[in-house]
Amino acid sequence: MKRVVVGLSGGVDSSVTALLLKEQGYEVIGMFMQNWHDTSVTISDECPWIDDSNDAQLVADTLGIPFQVIDLSEDYKKRIVDYMFHEYEIGRTPNPDVLCNREIKFDIFLKAAMQLGADYVATGHYCQKEELEVNGEKVYNLVAGKDNNKDQSYFLCQLSQYQLSKALFPIGHLEKPEVRRLALEAGLVTAEKKDSQGLCFIGKVRLPDFLQQQLKPKKGKAIELPASLPQFHVEEPERMDFSHEELKEITRPFSLNPDMGKELGEHSGAHYYTIGQRKGLGIGGSPLPLFVVETDTKSNIVYMGQGHDFPGLLKKGLFIPTSDVHWIREDLQMEIGEVRDYDLRIRYRQKLAKGKVYCFEGGLYLVFEELAWGVTPGQFATWYEKDRLIGSGVIS
To answer: What domains can you pick out in the chain, each with its CATH number?
Structure first.
């Protein structure tokens, strides 16, 4: 009998994951990851980890499977939280959930499961895995979940072949209503529990409070930019074949200074804001809502523009340095000078966008057929072939 350790989070998805695996004849062990102790920055009535742990225990009791709690808070702080602080400090916006999967669930947690003699680890992600043979060797594809509204393949975009070989995603072929129905029929306490919206296994967090643990408030200028700035109006060519120099030009960050706009007020620290952010600016009075266009953490300036369609929020492409490029399958890596058509995604739940990926010695250029909104340094860009996730990388 194959042994599987399930990351029981106290939510309905991981609960049904354990239920299905038990029904399929696996020896199932439930394990809750405690990643955080500081409750001062969590919103107590929105999924605190203690309640989640208790719910996970109740699910394990109902299913009749062993259960334990593993404290990964030290590793989580080193690998996720410290990285988050550093990225925000230099004006980038990290994605802790992608990192949590790569560094915690499918590394530290996986190793702990292997020490228990597990053959696999399983999570409640809405994604699927394909196994096939290439040149006599087993390889694995990461495939989107059946539920288009819940597909979480984006969050697993940094997994390696080894990590995929040890991973099971039992609910990837299901849609959310069916998962809840199965939980209700099995009498699981999590059947109607709301989905968590917080950081990976921490809970819902007040991000400003969280960041202020290390990044102190610092008053600075909030500048509104005019939509007429020439650098925002690059003529969009109909063609999609670009030279290396053209690619550098269309992916280059905007060069901005305070003299280009008008000062609207103060902000509490440029490192707290991210491109495309609308809420939390504390500045009103403009005909259209204000959105963050760019932040300058060195000069502590936040640049804003009016309206969701402000041209400074639109970009033709982005760049990923070679050191930040990850391929799910090494046999699908691009050669220098190669260009491929892929579907592109730069944030979770974003609709896939048609585009091209160019491979040069220094890295990859991703170019969109239609301008992309809110391209944000520090976030992960992904590229797909139909429903298969091929690769990912950190936006420069």
So the answer is: 3-211 (3.40.50.620), 216-396 (2.40.30.10)
